[in-house]
Amino acid sequence: MRFGGKVALQGINLTIEAGSFVVLLGPSGGGKTTLLNILGGFLDPTEGRVFIDGRDVTRMPPAKRPTTTVFQDYALFPHMSIAANVAFGLKMRRVAKDQQRIRTERALDMVGLGHTAARRIHELSGGQRQRIALARALVVEPSVLLLDEPLGALDLKLRRQMQEELKLIQKRVGTTFVHVTHDQEEAMAIGDVIVVMNDGFIEDIGSPERVYLQPSSRFTANFMGDNNLIEGSITDAAGERIHVETTFGGFSLTGKADKGAKVALSLRPEHLHPDAAGERAKIGTAKVVESGFFGTHHQCMAKLDGSDNTVKLRLPQKQMIRPGEALTLYADPADMVLLTR
């Protein structure tokens, strides 16, 4: 997909399983909203085809596609009642009035707002408006529901609540959801599949657990939450076992790479420990530079002795730590992820 001389999307080959909750995740300018607009018919792709339920819908206008879209600003009509807002799509499709009423009531009940049918939009909270927008989109029974950062305008507590509700509603109705966000925690909370996008490409795709714990690139490792990247090179490779030499020492782990290759090891903060239990390897002695309490844990930045390198780690909730304190750090090689790109 091109806009003038700029390539917005390139090499996209994405299959979405019916009935799944797919999240398009990435930074601003990564191409996720462009891809969503192509799926919804609001943009015509420069090349390639779009298929929904086995039908080629590439040149089909939005109103005729088996999709509906929930936008960040909800796009609700302030002069209409809540019921009229929800029934709008049915009216445009010339659905019989008795069916409009039945399906509208069902949709409002589904989002827990049946009691608001006679009210106007300005009488509702932000979270309620989001649910009305969702009801209006689902009442027409689309094959695919597209959500363009619909929770972005909500405060943190309400956003977390709506994430849970979105997930429950999606499982209840069984409609395919494609949700755009730049919030990694939101993506992991709601998605069956996460598609990580960067600079118009798909960087990674998989379950939240796989993408977080086994990222396939440096970009994904850094974008999906806090991470420590340890640069190194392969000094030995035999079958599925390799040895990586880094500034923190040498580590033997499972993986495939050519001897002499420049690689990186991804190590999440929660996988650094101040004790040598189990099969953990010593990373080094470090001095705590910063420490903050995050409720469930203490998050620290520590500088390794004899090096300019700093690492981020998480310590248990009850373990008090202060800047200036020294720690000996260990990590299980099984938690280290080999990255070749």
UniProtKB/TrEMBL annotation:
Cellular component terms per the entry's GO annotation: ATP-binding cassette (ABC) transporter complex
Record GO biological process: quaternary ammonium group transport
Name under which the protein is recorded: ABC transporter ATP-binding protein
Pfam entry (one): ABC_tran
Origin: domain of life: Bacteria
Keyword tags: ATP-binding, Nucleotide-binding, Transport
Molecular function per GO: ATP binding; ATP hydrolysis activity; transmembrane transporter activity
ABC transporter domain: residues covered: 1-224
Entry keyword annotation includes Glycosyltransferase: no
Source organism of the structure: Pelagibius litoralis
InterPro entries registered for this protein in UniProt: AAA+_ATPase (IPR003593), ABC_SmlMolc_Importer (IPR050093), ABC_transporter-like_ATP-bd (IPR003439), ABC_transporter-like_CS (IPR017871), Mo/tungstate-bd_C_term_dom (IPR008995), NA-bd_OB-fold (IPR012340), P-loop_NTPase (IPR027417), Transp-assoc_OB_typ2 (IPR013611)
Keyword Membrane on entry: no
